[in-house]
Amino acid sequence: MKLDPKVPSGPLQDKWDKHRFEMKLINPANKRKYKLLVVGTGLAGASAAATLAELGYNVETFTYNDSPRRAHSIAAQGGINAAKNYQNDGDSIWRLFYDTIKGGDFRSREANVYRLAQVSVNIIDQCVAQGVPFAREYGGYLANRSFGGAQVSRTFYARGQTGQQLLLGAYSALSRQIGAKQVKSHVRKEMMDLVVIDGFARGIVTRDLVTGKIESHWGDAVILATGGYGNVFFLSTNAQACNVSATYRAYKKGAFFANPCFTQIHPTCIPVSGDHQSKLTLMSESLRNDGRIWVPKKKGDTRHPNDIPEDERDYYLERKYPSFGNLAPRDISSRAAKEVCDEGRGVSQTGFGVYLDFKDAINRLGKKVIEERYGNLFEMYERITGKDPYKEPMMIYPASHYTMGGLWVDYNLQSTIPGLHVLGEANFSDHGANRLGASALMQGLADGYFIIPYTIAHFLASNKLEKVSTDHPEFKKAEQEAKDKINKLLSINGTKTPTYFHRELGKIMWDKVGMARNRKGLEEALQEIPKLREEFWQNVKVTGTGEDLNIVLEKANRVADFLEFAEVMAWDALEREESCGAHFREEYQYEDGEAKRNDEKFAHVAAWEFTGVGNKPIRHTEDLVFENVKLAVRSYK
Amino acid sequence: MRLTLHIWRQKNSLDKGHFEKYQLDDVSPDMSFLEMLDVLNEKLILEGKEAIAFDHDCREGICGACSLTINGIPHGPEKATTTCQLHMRKFKDGETLYIEPFRSRVFPVIKDLIVDRSAFDRIMQAGGFISVRTGQAQDANSIPIPKKNADLAMDAAACIGCGACVASCPNGAAMLFVSAKISQLALLPQGQPERKRRALNMIKQMDAEGFGACTNHYECEAACPKQISVRFIAMMNREYMKASLLKEDD
Questions:
Q1: What domains appear along chain B, each with residue ranges and CATH number?
Q2: What ipTM does this complex have?
Q3: Of chain A's two ends, which shows fewer C-beta atoms within 10 Å, N or C?
Q4: Nearest 10 degrees: CA dihedral of A197, A200, A201, A203?
């Protein structure tokens, strides 16, 4: 099958305008004849559902949380990028476009990224109109800050809670539509399967997490906005319930999964403290502006950090990257931390940590200035670790944070299954092999507010869809499969908990499909994952019943999908024989340890087609055509 | 650390519920409170027993899902901290803890420690928004907003909708939650056209849900993990009064 990205012709800057004019419309009176299902109510899902309802479509939303406001978009701290150029510092749509393409190490689609930069300005307008309290200057105008990978200040923020405020904005718009009965909101319901009828996505099957009831829902189109799969590593900065299930089930029904090996590791998280650890907490990257990163020069040095003299410390980022120093990009600093820990020079009780030291900054600027800049972060660190970073260095370590890969979509955000549209982190579209800070919020809202409302109309107007009902055999079949799976999980009654299997899977993925990968490790992972999966289906223990709220069953159901998906990720990492962005293959690096891209062979998207559990999926490619940028080597020396 | 836990178990909303006693011997002071419950749950599963159901998600103090009453205090003893951010080093070895769901007539227990807080969503649906359709907005910088007002609006907007204010209030009032949203939008120029309607509609829904009224105990502010100030309740009362007196025909 040839992947057609359906990118409109013409100059880059005119594509979206031209496309909007060429796409078909649906007249206002006819919109109410359509029903759209939106799965996931984070930034992308809530903004899409609200906007589609405003246009007059009947919308139903689904979330496994108790309220749309709890989606994990809420946890984003830093900000949202937009090419407003309010600072008069040389920003433009072209520059945001270029920074995003370069940041993604030239593995994203030009036309999508340009459109993202274009609509970024509308997002800020929309959010301000909704009452999002962005930070302001004394003159009353919006404030900006700078962020990694850019030389301009284009990031809008609401204290350290930008994700929360943007999500509450989208949630308020969605609440208005729920109140107006234009949206029917389903909470505590988890998608179990996608239903495809005559080649079109026509509905979903859900499990009511309170009653256990398996239910079918039909729609004229299905929109997935179910986030990323960072929890495949078990420990990540994601929320506990984040999972791959919705997108993976769609993959099993024929949607291609693109670039699953592109997973971002964030360099500044609080290290693991023990086996009980359930998640890793992100500390804002801004700390690297004033903190100095180091480890002891000596292996296994167990002295208190304050007792280690200056000449026995290795400030390895400053040493290796003299011009960027402690501000080297995310992927580079993460790998450098792993390297020194692998050498046995890591700190913390597990040996997987490095110091982030503010002593020099405090001496230079005074404690008061540091407190003003980072007070809340220092407080959070102390709350979690019980240690005072004003008195001793913080300890940090990289953690899984964001996934650039996702379901393959064309320019219209439609997957390879007609009628199935995918938004936000769940799709693969805009960040290439590495996402820049403050761009995730931008993409989620761009997809939801400004792209899908246009492209879905074109889809609906271009296809004559027969009415379906949930009595259709395909719905019944999917319901039965969901019930069978639940019953199977409950009947095994083995000796190990779902969390045990998740943790084991996480170890394999972190060690062999994590920050740095090589052929040997990936091949081992491809042996170990199926073994673990087999053991899971023979030996997992799920207590309770399927007829009421059962948190163990929910977890087992999600882990079961991670255990299949992990293999696709490993295959993708194995076959992409180059290093690019967050994907680092040890075999492909320059002598100084920098990533070696292979544009001749791998300037493409890899999209995987399901061929049965345990079978190697088929790798399809979409060539990336660069007409407006020159492929260059990223250098941060 | 050794802990004796008395945890509320309730099969469903119809069940009466009861405390059950558990002994946990190997608690690390570095665990978060929820990780301590994870460890207990792993133990229960292996013993073939049903795990204790509790709400949680982000585990970094922002989603508002976690909702435990610990020794009678919503979110436990540490100030300005959600349950998920509370760590075991704040407790003593050998301590006895009572763990219950958030208690309120308006938040029925669904199971064990999980309650139904959908009343908050319905209050939001009644008016917790600015009616702007996507695409209508003008340039974001066309209305300057004094920094002081924007900052104060942000103070109110920091609410995570957890419901600790309701659970801590002797009257079961939701006024801190409702006032935070009403104040946020009343402080911003974009919120002016619907200012009166919003206050009236949200408060009407709040009353219809069965929440109590404020009698100035200020327990809500003390329990609030985001330290939302009770001054917003005063602001809401002013908003309500003005709106009631100067009611327009809708």
A1: 3-111 (3.10.20.30), 118-245 (1.10.1060.10)
A2: 0.98
A3: N
A4: -40
